[in-house]
Amino acid sequence: MSSSNRQHRVLMVSDFFYPNFGGVENHIFNLSQKLTNLGSKVVVLTHAYGDCCGIRMLANGLKVYYLHRVPFYQQTTFPNLFGSLHMLRLICVREQITCIHAHQAFSTLALEAVLHAGSLGYPVVFTDHSLFGFADAASILMNKVLKCVLSNIHACICVSHTSKENTVLRACLPPGLVYVIPNAVNADDFTPSRGMPGEVSLAWPADLDRDPIVIVALSRLVYRKGIDLLALIIPHICNRHPNVRFIIGGDGPKRSLLQATVVENNLEDRVQIVGAVRQEKARDFLVQGHIFVNASLTEAFCMAIVEAASVGLTVVSTRVGGVPEVLPDDMMVLAEPSADGLCVAVEEAICRLKIAKPHEQHSRVRQMYSWSNVAERTLQVYDSVRDRNRDDALLSRLQRYRACGPLAGNGFAALSVLSFMYCTFLEWWFPSSNMEKATDWPLGTN
């Protein structure tokens, strides 16, 4: 296949990408790599991270545009509606994009790309990675914005069936437009400990009452990840099991709570808080433990528990969102999202260590989750978008916006008109036919 004959030419847009750490970032990178291997061209658009700005080339010829937009809250950029439209158009034309794929409802950059995609004439796919509520003021406002923004998408991807149900209800989307494609794991990057020289890991406990048992946790240290619950169970588990210690990876505003818990309970020699862990070091961190704890209060999928299971750890997780869909019961102990529920689940996980088979579990996870399978299914979504016959003229898009309500709907319709006028002006001022096209990275070149 020649470099000019790509199956699809996709622009991934999100505020969340490397060097930031998280599930969305890993998803975009790994999906992009596999799509490239399958014959498509993928370009990523995100905001600058410190000195990481401009254009960067990552593995397998993945080109990343880091826009000069400053994040103002948890790596999301401040909404500017039209400030980045010129760059978005320039990138799409130069890279000869055929489809825009936006990620994460929290991402301002992604939602703006969805809003402008119709004016630029590109079909758009949106992947929702999170769950939202329906009762609190913030959720009500976000759901209304999402309903309006997603009213003109061509397809939506959710990472679990629970996430699909949540998104369909929040955004009032036709269920036929929403596909379920789970996350995956690079099994070669998350293997059990082999006892190799220089590898930091522990022997598997034979005597559960005496041999050292290590519980690890790795996540953003924020309220949504259940760090308050984790802080409550640590003293209880340490008091009941003198041979158990904790290693906690990650950073965030709740780190101070964990540190205070450790000091108040004199657990400095049994609880280690190591801070942020880079993605390439995640496996080395996980193999230091026997049990992995996820205390999240809401999760659409939770990539971390799949990585932990691939390493061979016994997984404990709260029964929230799409988590029960992720792993079979013999690989994961589910708990109610409470301190008592998590304590009971950790006790059961300690008992399960006697029958755990890390290498056999790794083989099963390898068969269950594959990025190649995720990429192939995503290509089918792109194909459906390309082949779908839908009226995307301005008038039709305005009608879909106005159906979202008299206030918000008309407001987004007005924004769409302004977007269309701005794009028309940009085409007159700087015609796309005069733009130099970017050179494609040769297929099969790493």
Layout of SSEs?
Elements: E1 9-13, H1 23-37, E2 41-47, E3 54-58, E4 62-67, E5 71-73, E6 76-77, H2 85-94, E7 99-103, H3 108-120, E8 124-128, H4 137-149, E9 155-158, H5 161-171, E10 178-180, E11 213-218, H6 227-240, E12 244-249, H7 255-264, E13 271-275, H8 282-286, E14 291-294, H9 303-311, E15 314-318, E16 332-335, H10 339-352, H11 358-368, H12 371-387, H13 394-402, H14 408-429
Parallel strand pairs: 1-2, 1-7, 2-4, 7-8, 8-9, 9-10, 11-12, 11-14, 12-13, 14-15, 15-16
Antiparallel strand pairs: 3-4, 5-6
Helix pairs in contact: 1-12, 3-14, 6-7, 6-10, 9-11, 13-14
Can you tag this structure with a few keywords?
17% strand, Rossmann fold, alpha/beta, 446 residues, 8-stranded mixed sheet, 16 strands, 6-stranded parallel sheet, 14 helices
CATH class of the largest domain: Alpha Beta
What would the CATH topology of the largest domain be? Answer: Rossmann fold
Shape: elongated
Known CATH architecture of the largest domain: 3-Layer(aba) Sandwich
Structural class: alpha/beta
Termini separation comes to 16 Å
Number of strands: 16
Q: What does the largest sheet look like?
A: 8 strands, mixed
Secondary-structure element sequence?
Answer: EHEEEEEHEHEHEHEEHEHEHEHEEHHHHH
Helix content: 25-40%
Low-confidence stretches: none
Number of helices: 14
- Strand content is 15-25%
Q: Estimate the mean pLDDT confidence.
A: 91
What is the CA-atom radius of gyration, in angstroms? 23 Å
Enumerate the strands of the largest sheet in spatial order, edge to edge or round the barrel.
3-4-2-1-7-8-9-10
Name the CATH superfamily classification of the largest domain: Glycogen Phosphorylase B
Pathway: Glycolipid biosynthesis; glycosylphosphatidylinositol-anchor biosynthesis
Domain PIGA GPI anchor biosynthesis: 47-136
Keywords: Glycosyltransferase, GPI-anchor biosynthesis, Membrane, Transferase, Transmembrane, Transmembrane helix
Transmembrane segments: 407-430
